[in-house]
Amino acid sequence: MISKIKELSDLYFTEIVKIRRHLHKHPELSFYETETSKYIKDILNQWEIPFFEGIANNGIVVNLEGKDPLTSIIALRADFDALPIEEKNEVSYRSINKGVMHACGHDAHTASLLGAIRILNNLKDYWKGTIKFIFQPAEEMLPGGAKQMIEEGVLENPKVQRIIAQHVFPDLEAGKVGFCRGKYMASTDELHITIKGKGGHAALPEDYTNPILVAMNLISQLDSYFKDQQDYKCVFAIGFVEALGSTNIIPNSVKLKGTFRAMDESFRARAHEIMRETTNNLLEGDIDINFDIRKGYPCLINDNDLTNRTISFAKEYMGEDNVVDLPIRMTAEDFAYYSQLIPSCFYRLGTANIKRGITAGLHTSKFNIDEESLRIGMGLMAYLAIQNLTY
């Protein structure tokens, strides 16, 4: 089976690279991926692969049936939205949509999943069960396309028993993949804070209540509290401060924006209470604080049994030296919604090539991939799906 899949990966490689480059050249932001969705559907129609559309607006689902289709059902997922970043790569397939770029590799995810469909459709006589392919929009923006697709029944009809996804990883050389058992990625919440005081002339402190001092105090207290946590890994960070005062002008209000990340859902809930309690303790006189916590994705948890099996299958396909263990990350992914419901495995596909200078990080204007990784991206997903159908 491995040799058959690798042979087909080689056969379809040029086509999948072409697809990835088209997607990279025509990126679209979360919830606006209409042309991307149309392009994926056009490809599926060319291959005479039936699909369901309109799930979470732009989402697409393919149910590929092997022999005895109801014996086992597994899903493979790829996202296809882009980011609001101006691309600085000098490549023929550079983004033509100003200020929008596939800087997180979702073009590679989608191309790999299409390649896996191509391979698995060719090998339908060799496996039993059903493989559901989920092409998901809006991973990059709350509330996340995964949540909406789940609410609209993407894991039903047929009912998915386990799900796998891969994500590009510029920290690994192309030719390698990485896994993490158990908790892997953090929950994420957006913090939007407005502190209102009483502005005035800076030279007359008796006439104003400075909201900037309250903002500094709030940031300092919460930063110290969360940094002191020994039992729970978390991140509290403020990345935006707007006061709009001047050298001699105290503003009426300050706006803050930030993020809170945690690896434990119970602690996450308690942390929200701590943030509100700390805020309430700073309310006095003319000070009013609106602390808006916009709850985002939950923790991403890789099922231990599924991940252990998948690691062993990856080693069969790629060789033991090319499969590595990864530490937990405080970044977030809306695949976490799937992981909260059914056994899930989210792994990383190496895409770097140090010799060729392909090393830029995710969410940067120079991010790119070694396209040789697509050969592994589609082949490995196909192999993992077939092998995991037997459990």
User: Going by CATH, what is the homologous superfamily of the largest domain?
Assistant: Zn peptidases
Beta-strand residue percentage? 25-35%
CATH topology (level 3) name of the largest domain: Aminopeptidase
Helix-strand string:
HHEEEHEHEEEEEHEEEHEEHEHEH
* Tally of helical segments: 9
Mean pLDDT: 98
Tell me the CATH architecture of the largest domain: 3-Layer(aba) Sandwich
Number of domains: 2
The whole-angstrom Rg is 24 Å
How would you characterize the largest beta sheet?
A: 8 strands, mixed
What's the layout of helices and strands?
Elements lengths: L1 H24 L8 H13 L5 E4 L3 E7 L7 E7 L26 H17 L7 E7 L8 H7 L10 E12 L3 E3 L2 E4 L1 E10 L3 E2 L9 H17 L6 E9 L6 E2 L2 E10 L2 H16 L7 E8 L4 E3 L1 H15 L4 E3 L10 H4 L4 E9 L20 H16 L3
Parallel strand pairs: 3-4, 3-5, 5-16, 6-15
Antiparallel strand pairs: 1-2, 2-4, 6-16, 7-14, 8-12, 8-13, 9-11, 10-12
Helix pairs in contact: 1-3, 1-9, 3-9, 7-9
Task: Characterize the structure shown.
The protein folds into two domains: 2-184 and 300-388, Aminopeptidase (3-Layer(aba) Sandwich), CATH 3.40.630.10; 187-295, 2-Layer Sandwich (Alpha-Beta Plaits). It contains nine helices and 16 strands. Strands 1-2-4-3-5-16-6-15 form an eight-stranded mixed beta sheet, sandwiched between helices. It has a four-stranded antiparallel beta sheet with strand order 10-12-8-13, covered by helices on one side. Helix 3 (106-122) links the parallel strand 3 and strand 4 (130-136). Helix 1 packs antiparallel against helix 3 (106-122), helix 1 crosses helix 9 and helix 3 (106-122) crosses helix 9. It is of the alpha/beta class and 391 residues long. Helices cover 33% and strands 26% of the residues.
